Amino acid sequence: MPHRLITAIFLGLFLLTCSLLAAESDRPAAPAAELAAHLAAKQQGTAYIRVRMDIPGGTANVLQLQIKSRVSRGNADLVYQVLFPKERKGEAVLLRRSGNRISGTLHTPNGAVRELGAANFDEPLFGSALSYEDVIDDFFGWSQQAIVGTDEIDHIACQILESKPGKGRRSSYSSVRTWVDPNRLIPLRIEKYNDKGQLLRQIVVTRITLDGGDSIPVNLSVRDSRGLATEIDGSRIKRGVAFTDAEFTPEGLKQITPPRGAPE
């Protein structure tokens, strides 16, 4: 899965947003701000991804999804649609971020449409260990960024970047720590905490691939505070896809035809 899925989760899937700089009034000092800005910049652009999401609980929880992602500076539009299994085909969600504001729309196979309110964004995405907020939020664009240490993951020396939302920014998390490979500019682990310092969600990158010379995390293992684990394989990806505005509307959630040239 690309980097945008895991912040946000990602790609953060997980999850994903694209503000390059914090507010001028409280912009953090380099190098943490520069590192966060580089990570945010890598999320920009468009992409189509075919994803396998394995949620413990039976065959109905092994999902095949398609994701349409459109991210620009300050804005993000994401569509997640279930393609398989048959009984869940057509489940879909549209998530949008404009500045600090996020919104969403759910579509069920029977045609029902429901708007997501502020209280819904910590709910699980298709029953997984990821929340809606995880895949649309932009903690790399938060106003407070700091390097709080170093660590090794699989013999790779990482910087630990701590992100905090600051005043006036709504989030389910008080802080997010990201273990960053500074050479490839990719996260290898993300941990999200509440205001009591309790770990609410952990995202670990389990596979990385090269795309046009750029390193992209594509496989993720996610665990939430309930102990629920979700394995995600997002290795089938096409970047630079031309989407229409209609695809990122509640009506567009009903259309599951992939774009031309999309990976099977």
3D structure, described in words:
The chain is mainly beta and 264 residues long. It contains one helix and 13 strands, in the order αβββββββββββββ. The longest helix has 10 residues, at 32-41. The radius of gyration is 17 Å and the shape is globular. The relative contact order is 0.20.
Task: Briefly summarize what is shown.
With 264 residues, this protein is mainly beta. Helix content is 4%, strand content 45%.
Q: Topology, pairings included?
A:
Elements: H1 32-41, E1 45-54, E2 62-72, E3 75-84, E4 92-98, E5 101-107, E6 113-116, E7 144-153, E8 156-164, E9 175-181, E10 186-193, E11 199-211, E12 214-224, E13 229-239
Antiparallel strand pairs: 1-2, 1-13, 2-3, 3-4, 4-5, 5-6, 7-8, 8-9, 9-10, 10-11, 11-12, 12-13
Number of helices in the DSSP assignment: 1
Separation, N- and C-terminal Cα atoms: 15 Å
Give the biggest beta sheet: 13 strands, antiparallel
Side by side, the strands of the main sheet go 6-5-4-3-2-1-13-12-11-10-9-8-7
Uncertain spans: 1-30
| Percent helix | under 10%
The fraction of residues in strands falls at 35-45%
Give the beta-strand count: 13
What does the radius of gyration come to? 17 Å
Order of helices and strands: HEEEEEEEEEEEEE
User: Overall 3D geometry?
Assistant: globular
Backbone structural class: mainly beta
Mean pLDDT figure: 86
Q: Which keywords apply here?
A:
disordered N terminus, 264 residues, single chain, mainly beta
